[in-house]
Amino acid sequence: MIQSDKNMTFIERCHEWADQLRKGKSPDWLRELRQQGWDCFERLGIPSVKDEEWKYTNIRPALDHCYALFIQPQLRAVDALPGYRDEQDINIVFVNGQLSRGLSNMDKPPLGMTVATLTELLTAKEGLARALWTTDHVSQPPAFVALNEALAGDGVYIEISDKVATDQVIHIIHLTSASREKVLTAPRTLIRLGKSSEATILESHVALNDHDVYFTVPLTDIFLADNAICHYTKAQKESLQAYHVGTTRVWQKRDSSFDGFSVVAGAAITRNNLDVAIDGEGATASLNGLYSIYKDQHVDNHTAVDHRQPNATSNQLYKGILNDAAHAVFNGKIFVRQIAQQTNSYQLNKNLLLGKECRIDTKPQLEIFADNVKCTHGATIGQLDEDEIFYLRSRAISRKEATQLLLQGFVDDLVGRLSSASVGRKVSQLLAPSLEAVG
Amino acid sequence: MRKEETKLLNEKTIEENILTSRDYKYGFYTDIAMDRIPKGLSEDTIHLICDKKNEPDWMRSWRLKAYRHWTTMSEPHWPNFEYGPIDYQSVSYYSAPQKVKEGPQSMAQVDPELVKAFEKLGIPLSEQKRLAGVAVDAVFDSVSVGTTHQAELAKQGVIFCSMTEAIRHHGDLVKQYMGSVVPYTDNFFATLNSAVFSDGSFCYIPKGVKCPLELSTYFRINAAESGQFERTLIVAESGSYVSYLEGCTAPMRDENQLHAAVVELIALDDAQIKYSTVQNWYSGDKEGRGGIYNFVTKRGKCLGRRSKISWTQVEAGAAITWKYPSCILQGDESIGEFYSVALTNHRMKADTGTKMIHIGKKTRSTVVSKGISTDESNNNYRGLIKIMPTADGARNFSQCDSMLVGNKCSANTFPYIEVKNSTATLEHEASTSKINAEQVFYLKSRGLDMEESIALIINGFCKDVFKELPMEFAVEAVRLLQMKLEGSVG
Questions:
Q1: ipTM of model over 0.85
Q2: CA distance linking residue A328 with residue A324, whole number of Å
Q3: Which of A57, A386, B9, B364 has a CA-to-CA distance to B203 between 20 and 30 Å?
Q4: Higher local confidence (pLDDT), A305 or B12
Q5: B window 399-438, beta carbon within 8 A of A
Q6: Residue B246 near residue B278, CB atoms below 8 Å
Q7: CB-CB: which of B412, B416, B424 is closest to A363?
């Protein structure tokens, strides 16, 4: 456990942690990378609303708390996840940023699949770890990615070998329990799919109760080799007092397919960055998202699809339900490089405003440098159709029930597309409280 | 003797133009005796402009306030292109044909040289040749050289004159409204304009009057090393209607000239203003040398209930176009509209779009933007739809489509949508694509050549916007696009 002085600023505390981490035993190159991450974070500083990328999200409230890096969970692990963790899945459970062996069942993965913690990877395959960690291909990481690079302690490494397909769900659970103390976690996940492999991965961020204050800056990197298929879902239901600034980066090779889904139902302030780089011809990427928020929650989804090779397709559909005084932000970017001819790229953001004081800022953005492309984007903002509610009420359904039925339909449009029923069930479970609050 | 030389020079320039660039026939230069103030910008410059124009003290102090504020501001560089550097000290801020320095008189007294220059641009200044019911205010460099049909308009109580005249004769109206939509602190270029604006058009439509003629201002930059800073103010009283047109051209030069104008529209209860622009400034040559920097602030305020402001623009010229005609929808049930076609070729850059600020209840807005980029140009749509908490039941529909012709150009869209009221309904859609090969094939199989087919398809692509233009302008716009596209495709 690393504690720190209550009078220090957020950056000073992070600085101290970064120093301590560097003193710990780790290979020189990793120490150097952490230093680079720290230098970068220090140079960029905490983004403010004056930054175009953070125009609508003020992250400052997250920095007013005094966090500790890694603290022991304050509950018995066994009580931790009633009904959310399935024994049939491969579970990797982190509690407050540290692996919980008791809750995980990752020791005997099926043939062709490697599931390990990053610490294990470092001892077993240092060369590979170094190659995966070194992200020279990312020109300028944003501030919170750099912070993760500086502070990441442990994480998961998942590798699927060539030509291995599995429909068993790999479930990474980040559970935070910090009722007495505030904690900052920076989990790192590395996922590598070999040629012509297929896997279903669920990354969950959950909390035990809605009063815990903590801050998490996860970073997930996904590498897809030729013809690989990855079903990736990031489901987030942090505590309603928590802050979540997460980044997922995807690199796709030829003919690979990324099927991503992002669900946000929790946290006081959420910022999700999803960056997909299409590095191979004929790749397809689908980025779907759903946010259902209430009270004064704030959700900011940023997606960026970078078409660097021709003949690729990307599809985005983000849907949101806003209640009470919730505030949602969507910013979707599509870049089409000059070489990326025959690109098809679609993006749609749909929002339902149900609360009196809710706010939405959406900015779908296209930057296109190739001529033979088809790109569209759209955004809609509206309310539930009164005619539809009237129809249901004329069938003797109460207003509340009618509203919830219509919302269920709005949500199922996306949840129904999930390839794994098990993932769908878990996602619905996370969404339930915010949907029940409506009406 | 001098006249003959001028004529020779003009004809030669035109011929050269035809040889060098087929798409800009307005690139000639009129050699005419000019009255210009020395280059440079300081408080003295402003005093000099005020003195030249015999302005009242309130105007002088307003300009000085703007200038002092401007010195504290820095040049903005956030758009998606590079420009400049602009040396604000090497521009002459006032340059007028000598013979009009007394202010425009009746049309009969306008220098025949100027009349000829405007005729060459297709703008007849003599009232006998009136262009199907259009009254024109012709602005040549820094001053208005004449306004047609003033007498006829005055019968209805419509005031249509140059800004200089308006300040002199209708000072109260100007004082009341100038700066009420675009304050002098608004942005770098608007502030510069507030300090040094030399002329422009003023238009006032009294209560309940439907303006019998289309009003129009034609802007011409002629002198080198000068900029054009004009200001347009249109006030439509309750229940009135006016349709206003604006056109612009400039000679071909290797230097970049700055055009920083401000347009303010005010619509009171039930008033309607329709503002159409066909912008054809010189856009620079194929390598991107020269051309006008068109940095314009245009904004309309729907102050009254059920008022309506409609912007229609065809942006086909200027090296860099950087403008966002906007509507502040303050009155309940007011309507804002924006229709735009932006065509870029060679190395032109356009960053244009609109802002719709919904404040009043049940306000509605429509945005239709069509961008066409060819050659090595860069075309951006940047727009903002903002629904304020007070705007219950606001409604917006936006559509922005881009078409790419050629593989070295780029098209970007940056739509910002900010909604702070949950009763709002918005739809936004945008697309980017190339010309459909099947459509081209179909037209070619009917005997059209490549260029004609593409012109026809682009025409159809822009139809939604063209149909909003007054008839003469629509014809002009179609021809303009065809000219611009020549040589870019096929």
A1: no
A2: 12
A3: B364
A4: A305
A5: 402, 404-420, 422-434
A6: yes
A7: B416
